[in-house]
Amino acid sequence: MTEFHDLPQDEQRRLIYPEIIRVVRLLGGRATRAQIREELKNSSRVIDVETITAEKDSPNRPGETFRPFDFPFYMSIKDLVFTGYLSDEDRHTVALTDKGREVDMNSWDLTKEVFKPARAEWNRRAKRNKQLREANSENSVQPVETEAPVPTVEQAEDTGDAIEQTEMSLPESEDPETEFQSRLHNALMGLTPIRFEEFARELVKEMGVTIDPDLGIKATGDGGIDGFGYVTGDDFRTTRVAIQAKRWQGTVSSPEIDRFRGAMDKFNAEYGIFITTSDFSQDAVRASRSYTRMVTLINGTKIAELVRRYHLHTQEVTAWVLDDDFFHPDRV
């Protein structure tokens, strides 16, 4: 069986199109790009978790990584917007149109109805951007980029460094949420293990857990946990919470969940929180829900969401961009 990343770009996107529509329908007809990708990991039978979460070293940004899957994923979302199956509500969120709600995916001609018309739109935009750059050059004015240069489909179907450069720019320009998550991930990976465990405890504290000042704090001999705390409910019942923090690149598998549950037993913890910079395999997700003591899983996407929610070591800013279609010089 051919691996997803070995498929031509058009075949990759023909696999992704119906999955995006299925997921947005499942999520109620409206979702952020991050939510769509997260649900793909949880429920897709077409694209496996490892394909979605795999990372590579950036050829242009030493010490940083990117996800190869993000390029066809974001291209596919834009293709569905261009062809009227999705609408862009903002730079984070897309919604199903009537066309997207009603399409019969069993008889959907993906090449004719999505890929080819979207290809024409990508090429039109590439031509427009080239004209704008040439006009700016003739007027000796430095161009102000309001969006990343849009690749032609022919460029997207090439292989090598050019594709990796495009992958690094397009997803970030399409979704500031993903750009933030990528930068946060690289920052967390730059922390020492001890500093990351401190960050994890601070995050859990913001979630309403009172951190124990002694348990799980030691750098070594911590009994298999990286923190411990207590949650007191409205009925004044207190629950013991064990914390595990893994600053990893690879996917966390189910044996890690089992080992953590064993550590929970040592401390009589009724509840566990497992935090990782990477992601969890489907077996790990199933293992976390087994037995009577649940383990809440917090992956890199969820970390970014919680950091924004609690403003933990972050500052919110607002950016404005021009509508290139409206301000295009050829528009009459």
TrEMBL record:
It comes from the Bacteria. This is Mrr restriction system protein. The lineage of its organism: Bacteria, Bacillati, Actinomycetota, Actinomycetes, Bifidobacteriales. InterPro entries: Restrct_endonuc-II-like (IPR011335), Restrct_endonuc_IV_Mrr (IPR007560), tRNA_endonuc-like_dom_sf (IPR011856), Type_IV_Methyl-Rstrct_Enzyme (IPR052906). Gene3D superfamilies: 3.40.1350.10. Residues 191-307 form the Restriction endonuclease type IV Mrr domain. Pfam families: Mrr_cat. SUPFAM superfamilies: Restriction endonuclease-like. One of its GO terms (molecular function) is restriction endodeoxyribonuclease activity. GO terms for biological process: DNA restriction-modification system. Residues 126-157 are annotated as: Disordered.
